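stuck on this fold:
=====
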Amino acid sequence: MKRLIAIICVTLLLASCAGYTVYPVKSRPTFHPKGGMLYALPKTRVCVSVTFSKRNHEQAPYAAFASEMLGIDTSVIAAPFAIENISIEGVNEADPNLYYFIYPRRLSVNIDSRHLLRSVGVNNDDYDEYESHTERRLQTAGHETLAAEYNLYDRADTFYVRGDRAGKPSLISTKKDSRSLRQRAMSAAQRLDEIQNKRQQLLYGDYEGDYSPETLKYLLQRLAEQEQAIEQQFVGTTARETVRFYVDPKTDRASLDSQTVVLFGFSPRLGMRSSGAIEPGMDTVVCTLKSLNTLRNATRFVKQSTSGRKKGDNAGTRRTFKYRQAETVHVTVHSNTLRYETDVRIAQFGPVVDLPKHKFEAIFDRNTGDLIHYKN
């Protein structure tokens, strides 16, 4: 009897120290909790952002003379589509198979809008102090693009007679420009050469006059805009679009070490096609994920050494907080003509770890879900 009372006292003491309970949503707890909140373990998807560019030749009347007068490769004009940039990153979301219900009592728990755990036992003010990665958005002020101003066909001649005031001639004669397309293109190319020479003089100080730094900067900017406007008459304008492809890594045993997913097909003449509509002759772009297995020994230890003595008493049934330690995966986006690669932290490739059943402070990285701060 005394032994039973001692066991009950120790149990109550531990419960009062812990002060919280965590239930897997798939479990059936003996005692129904009065109220609480939900959180989930993170699941990482690989986001591949591809920036495509398309060159429009409708506003390029001198495209036929770009190679002759500017020395531009004709393939640039013949192939209007191009891949300008590819970026790779991991995006965390809630794993629908690993949700937990928290009965927090007096414990402070911070959960973000994705239902991912941000901190335990830490106030919001302290969380901002310890957080290592913060999301920052750079806002760039938009600028007005200088449109190409050129007169292809019309010109005006003014005639002044005695008694006319400045700006108010007696006769204005307008007629078609008799210059050929080649002559107009040659004139534009000469103007472009003059602008480029003027820019070089301003950049290297080979100019007459004393310009202030602000004036010099303004002149360089205006010359660059004029240069771009004339070049567009030869090569056209460029429109850019960023498309995001998401890869959901497989977690079966055969795919853990390496797996490959087809993203899209691309051709400089035809543009981009989805993975299910790749045409013959197009370059196939694939994404390869190769685990570096940096946590192989740690995962084996967690599975074999931290499980309980009782059957089923493991990381999925204990009433403590769980978190995932993300594994490093080398991600490569490649084809016959391009190759981009980087390392990404994949949450579901790493082990699920239990936190102790006593009062503590813990902070988790918002990007990877890793434990980055712990204090008893």
User: Anything to note?
Assistant: The chain is about 25% helix and 35% strand.
